[in-house]
Specification:
The complex is a heterodimer. Chain A is mostly helical. Helices cover 53% and strands 10% of the residues of chain A. Chain A is built from five helices and three strands, in the order ααααβββα. A three-stranded antiparallel beta sheet of chain A has the order 1-2-3, covered by helices on one side. In chain A, strand 2 and strand 3 form a beta hairpin. Chain A is rod-shaped. Chain B is elongated, with a radius of gyration of 33 Å. Chain B is built from five helices and no strands. The chains are: A mainly alpha, B mainly alpha.
Chain lengths: 217, 204
């Protein structure tokens, strides 16, 4: 129950919500830090049109990108097919072992990359949820600086005017000035009479909307 | 008709009830988001074990690769002549193919790249080519990057989760004294939560 309880101290929004807001922000910042620090470009494993840019980068960096094009040169292919079994049987076996383990390592490296990407996505999801949490709570946390008084009302109505008391107000509308906690005065206009059953609910809803909007800004 | 002070007071009470209801709704939504964060965290934990498993298999394969590579290097001389002859014929084709690609796709600084490429090819050995040295180097480089990225992500998450633990467990979702089953989504020390429990006395 967050309504004020007359015999006890009023709820202190500063103590309750401000740390919450600060901590969500801290958690979110910590979560996002790695993305700002090390934008990880998942490596290219095959030579396709889609990763041309990466190959260009590799060529510019140290020319190794050119070796990806060995498939297009017959003589280069022949080197890979050289069979040394006649002079060294162990070398052929070792090379087979090397190729097998290399393929396996490449496979697990790709798997690791995929998992890493999913992991990164999970962190982004958590960060997004924290952001949502932050947005959801901003308007309440902003109350911190505005709720230092001992006022027992969350919403206080100051003036209520309609066409009969103020001819500048169009007929059928009611203009109400309220304060939420000890915030700035908020003026809302509702198309209802004071006697309407849900008059105050509409006034409070509109006032809160304005308050939330301004808090968010 | 002028509105009396009593009426204004009644209206204030009525409006305060609405605001109170909205605050409660906001808290409920926060609770829902918290649950979602916990679910995401569970999925993250599962992913982490898959990552550890994949890492172990990758490292084993990398060790085998390094091992075979070292053994092969020890017997480099065999077939060297054949390979060198082929390499001399491979180089111009590789250079030409690469330069064509670079001019067509990358479109910048071809002159400089051409010189660098020539130097690179002259310094490379056919043996390196024969054992797929470029693929091995690329794997090792990826391995280093992957480890680094994982370390940074873990570090970020550890910091974020310790804040979230404090946030969700200690300050705003305190544990009921009668709780026997503690629950902690982020850290390894489980605790309980109470803030949104109807029996909570926390707010008061």
């Amino acid at each position: 129950n967050v309504m004020p309880f007359p015999l006890l101290e009023p709820l202190n929004f500063h103590d309750v919500f401000q740390p919450f807001y600060d901590m969500i922000r801290q958690a979110q910042q910590a979560m996002d830090a790695h993305l700002q620090r090390t934008p990880y470009h998942f490596p290219v494993t095959e030579f396709t049109e889609n990763n041309d840019r990466t190959v260009c980068k590799e060529i510019r960096h140290n020319s190794t990108g050119c070796l990806r094009m060995k498939d297009q040169c017959e003589k280069c292919q022949e080197i890979l097919e050289v069979d040394c079994s006649a002079s060294s049987p162990t070398q052929t076996l070792l090379r087979q072992q090397l190729n097998t383990s290399l393929q396996l390592a490449e496979k697990f490296s790709r798997l690791y990359d995929q998992l890493l990407q999913s992991y990164q996505q999970k962190m982004l999801d958590t960060s997004t949820l924290l952001k949502q949490l932050n947005e959801q709570f901003t308007w309440v946390s902003q109350l911190a600086n505005l709720t230092q008084s001992d006022d027992q009302y969350y919403l206080q109505v100051f003036t209520v005017n309609s066409h009969s008391s103020d001819p500048s107000i169009p007929s059928g509308l009611t203009k109400v000035v309220v304060k939420l906690f000890n915030s700035f005065p908020i003026t809302v206009t509702v198309p209802q009479e004071v006697s309407s059953p849900n008059f105050m609910e509409n006034v409070a809803e509109k006032a809160l909307q304005q308050y939330r909007r301004k808090s968010h800004i | 008709r002028a509105i009396s002070d009593k009426e204004l007071q009644e209206m204030s009470t009525e409006g305060s009830k609405y605001v109170n209801k909205e605050i409660k709704n906001a808290l409920k939504e926060v609770k829902q988001i918290k649950t979602q964060i916990e679910q995401t965290n569970e999925e993250r934990k599962l992913l982490l074990s898959s990552l550890e498993e994949a890492k172990k298999k990758k490292e084993d394969a990398l060790n085998d690769t390094r091992d075979s590579e070292n053994k092969l290097k020890a017997s480099q001389g065999v077939c060297n002549e054949t390979m060198t002859a082929l390499w001399e014929e491979c180089k111009p084709c590789l250079k030409q193919t690469c330069m064509k690609f670079y001019a067509r796709v990358c479109r910048s600084g071809s002159g400089l790249v051409g010189h660098q490429l020539e130097e690179f090819l002259n310094q490379s050995s056919p043996f390196y080519f024969w054992i797929n040295g470029d693929r091995i180097d690329s794997l090792m480089e990826n391995d280093r990057e992957q480890s680094h990225v994982m370390d940074v992500m873990e570090d970020s998450f550890t910091r974020a989760s310790s804040i979230m633990d404090e946030l969700f467990q200690d300050r705003f979702f305190p544990r009921r004294p009668q709780d026997t089953q503690y629950y902690s989504p982020f850290s390894s020390f489980p605790r309980g939560s109470l803030f949104f429990n109807p029996k909570s006395r926390f707010a008061r």
